[in-house]
Amino acid sequence: MDWDDLRVFLAVVRAESLSGAGRALKCDAATVGRRVARLEEALGNALFVKSPQGYALTEAGGRLLPHAEAAEAAFAGAAEELSGTGRQLTGQLRIGAPDGCANYLLPQVCAEICDSHPGLEIQIVALPRVFNLSKREADMAIAVSPPTAGRLTVQKLVDYQLHLAAHESYLAAHPPILSRADLRAHRIVGYIADMIFDKELDYLAETRAEGVGLASNSVSVQMQMLRAGAGLGIVHDFALPFTPGVVRVLPEEIGLSRAFWLIRHADDRRSERLERLAAALGRGMRREVARLETLAAVGQGVGSPTRAVVAPGL
User: Fold this and answer.
1) Are the C-beta atoms of 169 and 232 separated by less than 8 Å?
2) Do residue 139 and residue 286 come from a single domain?
3) Which of 104, 117, 142, 303 suits 95 as a labelling partner, its CA being 20 to 30 A distant?
4) Average pLDDT, stretch 172-189?
């Protein structure tokens, strides 16, 4: 069995089309089709069936998949060993993450990793949904809850805190908020209900509000709404130092704790390079969350002198 044919097989599995696999492999779809046919002939089994949704694995293809992925991991490990990447990490790493993490944590963490490993190229893909690692949309993904199915390796990265918050201008222009009951008179900023892709993001119950007045599927957009004085919303403490004027409201009454989880394909545990990158990512995330939450607790912005902020009406 030819490794190049297995590589083509994996590309079709992940792209679910010959043309998509061809783009990934930098060859035409006809060549991909011939290579798949050659592999099927050698194995004596059909590996794919074409459907309206694209190319789907047959039962035989499903049995071949873990072996092909193991071969891929073995080849990658051999390349790492021979190139000496045990000392300096090189190559490309794509990290998928929800946009709050991608906007407020990963830029600093990844910059630090790249400073230590100049030959490394890191790509951050920020999407408000769950990543499909089987299709290699990313090499590793960060999620707000651990998956319960699939051939995946899952490790907890860090706990983080969230609180109700609003801009000082909004608080100054609206009735005081002394208890949860007072929130009924205020506009709530939050997620679009039918676009919440993880139950851990459903914060509405914490405010006891009947609905969201301004909504977005993006954490960053929600934060911009708060900066514009549009209302109150549940926000990450680690984002507050980046948003001057946005302060916590009822912090003793309304507070949430969540966690980020690092998700990788199970076979990637065999790669020393990815193991080291995962460890570096975890260390950096824990340091950065601790640093930013400390700044948020004292009302200090990034790069600003320490200042204590008390929301009007509290």
Assistant:
1) no
2) yes
3) 303
4) 92
